[in-house]
């Protein structure tokens, strides 16, 4: 079964508030759904299209679990806490589990 992923690209406007209201509380939700950070910030370079200041990739055991985490009441509350301090997008995508070149 293919894994599920969140790809998040975020611009943070108030880093202290973002950390206090969102980052300090998201770990419990991600742990509940078995999420694993593959990318969390880090040095990056945009080669095509506009960049965001922060990029995150989370891995879940499958697409359904990635969706369930996002739609959970706990994460929906975190979206509301994060929104005043940042702007961005999150894509939930099913991983590829087929043949490789």
In short:
The protein is an alpha+beta fold. Helix content is 37%, strand content 30%.
Summary tags:
37% helix, single chain, alpha+beta, four-stranded antiparallel β-sheet, 101 residues
Write the SSE topology.
Layout: E1 4-12, H1 15-32, E2 36-40, E3 54-60, H2 63-71, H3 73-82, E4 86-94
Antiparallel strand pairs: 1-3, 1-4, 2-3
Helix pairs in contact: 1-3
Strand line-up across the major sheet: 2-3-1-4
Query: Secondary-structure element sequence?
Result: EHEEHHE
Backbone structural class: alpha+beta
Mean pLDDT: 96
The coarse silhouette is globular
Helix content: 25-40%
Number of helical elements = 3
- Give the low-pLDDT segments: none
Q: Please summarize the sheet with the most strands.
A: 4 strands, antiparallel
Task: Supply Rg.
Answer: 14 Å
The percentage of residues in β strands lies in: 25-35%
Whole-Å distance between the termini? 19 Å
Number of strand elements: 4
Describe the structure.
With 101 residues, the protein is an alpha+beta fold. The protein contains three helices and four strands, in the order E-H-E-E-H-H-E. A four-stranded antiparallel beta sheet has the order 2-3-1-4, covered by helices on one side. The two termini are 19 Å apart.
């Amino acid at each position: 079964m293919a894994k599920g992923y969140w790809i998040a690209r975020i611009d943070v406007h108030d880093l202290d508030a973002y950390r206090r209201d969102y980052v300090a509380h998201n770990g419990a939700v991600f742990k509940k759904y078995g999420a694993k950070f593959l990318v969390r910030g880090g040095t990056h370079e945009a080669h095509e299209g506009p960049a965001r200041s922060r990029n995150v990739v989370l891995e879940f055991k499958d697409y359904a679990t990635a969706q369930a985490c996002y739609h959970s009441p706990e994460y929906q509350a975190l979206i509301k806490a994060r929104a005043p301090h940042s702007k961005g997008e999150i894509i939930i995508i099913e991983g590829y589990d087929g043949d490789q070149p």
